[in-house]
Design brief:
With about 350 residues, the protein is mainly α. It is about 60% helix and about 0% strand. The protein has 16 helices and no strands. It is flat, with a radius of gyration of 22 Å. The protein starts with 5 loop residues before the first helix and ends in an 11-residue tail after the last helix.
Amino acid sequence: MEEISLREKTYKKEYAFLSPFATFSEKTKGRQRPEEPCAMRTEFQRDRDRLIYCKSFRRLKNKTQVFFSPEGDHYITRLTHTLDVAQISRSIARALSLNEDLAEAIALGHDLGHTPFGHSGERILRRLCPLGFEHNVQSLRVVDVLEKDGKGLNLTMEVRDGIVNHKKSGHPSTLEGKCVSLADRIAYINHDLNDAVRAGILSLDDVPKEIFEVLGKTSKQRINTAILSIYKNSDGINDVKMDKDVEAASENLRSFMFKQVYYSSTAKREEEKAERMLTEMYVYYMEHVEELPETYVDLLENYPREQVVCDYLSSMTDRYAIYMFNCIFVPKGWTFIDEK
């Protein structure tokens, strides 16, 4: 009797327990470059593992979420945000009997293309580069082209689609992708609010009371309210959505955060500093492409100079961007030899 692989056992479990609207691992649209299947893992599980172990994922620990290079140990970074999104995505997918592995893989890769200095860095590169810059598009470029020294991770079509379509304006082709898009917004408006309170930028009393009346005052309550709303409004149908009241309250909280935190005078002051730094480095590397790391120099054979310079700058962590700026522009002290 032929032995059944662990991968095939997972297929059987999916058919037995997942919703008919779920994305089944066995029916993946495949990869850009065909590969031999793994005996143990489904294709979505393989993608999850590739993302966890790639260099750009590790760099997220030193990339800003909201506050530039925060000194405290408990502020959210781009990595902890990504883990939050992965957890919330899995919770939503589990509640709706969708494919948790696919949801998690999309969540782990959704912000790999983010710049140093958070959304400020994204806005700055968008202004600098004539080709434009969007972090979701860059995240797809990271997994398709930049990782593994220009070879890319060769992820499945479903994960790639979820990554590039995770923004509010996107249209994911899978319900798991929709889970991640909602989870991303649920995560950042809640943990960014906590960070803003921790930093003394605002207090919970500043938040309009009608928002907390719908969502709850604590982060736990707000996240639970959002997930339960999605479950009640999406179970058994071919969609993932909140009810109108919770969606409206969430959007109001998001608008409040943009006004009071993301676009605050404090954030603007720091953005001005980041803009000077990134602008100077952009101009410098446009004129000295030979000083880019070898992997990026090789990319110049197939991609415009503006794109490759943005690839390098967006890959930097906050502290590495500051380090490189100092290396390029800050004079170093002379070492004098004592002549006798």
